[in-house]
């Protein structure tokens, strides 16, 4: 499979944008100081990548953004939580976008991804601490995931019209 230089540049820019949003987000205080609740700004870029390029490239963006962020500011355990949530989120968002877009808007796709991200992180946490009671924390994370998913979905939807211009004016 031959990749064009143009596509490599676009995906690299998306990875950079996701990394910057991830780092900026770490400086934004969350109104409710509950562990694991984040805005999920980098998920905007994941949604944009799904719209522009599809599933494979969205996974590349998620994994490389997560790896680079953890190399800069985190540790290996945080990487496992983040990458598992990010991969599950990208998978669910892609499936909902491709198969159920007639039922769900981009905001709905984002909400599914946000909730999936939280489930993925709890799954890894339950394995790491060897205790599945951590899933009792899921209702709190689902509520925050729905709220944050709505926000990131609206932002990604705002960029959708600009993405279409890029899609139609380029051949990968």
Oligomeric status of the shown chains? Answer: single chain
**Tally of separate domains:** 1
How far is the N terminus from the C terminus?
11 Å
Q: Helix/strand-derived class?
A: mainly alpha
- Average pLDDT, all residues: 87
Provide the succession of SSEs. Answer: HHHHHH
Please compute the radius of gyration using only Cα atoms.
Answer: 16 Å
- The total beta strand count reads 0
What's the CATH class, please?
Mainly Alpha
Could you describe the largest sheet, including whether it forms a barrel?
Answer: none
Q: Which runs of at least 5 residues are low in confidence (pLDDT < 50)?
A: none
Query: In one word, what is the shape?
Result: globular
Give the secondary structure arrangement, pairings included.
Elements: H1 5-25, H2 42-52, H3 55-73, H4 76-100, H5 106-129, H6 138-168
Helix pairs in contact: 1-2, 1-3, 2-3, 2-4, 2-6, 3-4, 4-5, 5-6
Structural notes for this entry:
This protein has 172 residues and is mostly helical. It has one domain (5-168): Arp2/3 complex 21 kDa subunit ARPC3, CATH 1.10.1760.20. It is built from six helices and no strands. Helix 1 runs antiparallel to helix 2 (42-52), helix 1 (5-25) crosses helix 3 and helix 2 (42-52) packs across helix 6. It is globular and about 45 Å long. 37% of the residues are buried.
């Amino acid at each position: 499979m031959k990749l064009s230089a143009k596509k490599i540049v676009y995906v690299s820019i998306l990875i950079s944008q996701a990394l910057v949003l991830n780092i900026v987000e770490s400086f934004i205080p969350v109104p409710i100081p509950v562990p694991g609740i984040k805005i999920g700004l980098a998920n905007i870029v994941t949604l944009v990548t799904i719209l522009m390029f599809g599933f494979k490239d969205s996974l590349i963006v998620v994994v490389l953004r997560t790896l680079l962020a953890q190399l800069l500011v985190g540790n290996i355990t945080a990487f496992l939580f983040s990458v598992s949530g990010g991969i599950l989120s990208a998978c669910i968002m892609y499936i909902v976008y491709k198969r159920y877009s007639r039922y769900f808007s981009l905001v709905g796709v984002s909400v599914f991804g946000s909730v999936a991200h939280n489930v993925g992180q709890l799954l890894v946490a339950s394995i790491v601490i060897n205790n599945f009671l951590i899933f009792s924390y899921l209702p709190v994370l689902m509520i925050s995931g729905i709220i944050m998913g709505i926000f990131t979905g609206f932002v990604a939807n705002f960029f959708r019209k600009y993405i279409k211009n890029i899609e139609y004016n380029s051949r990968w």
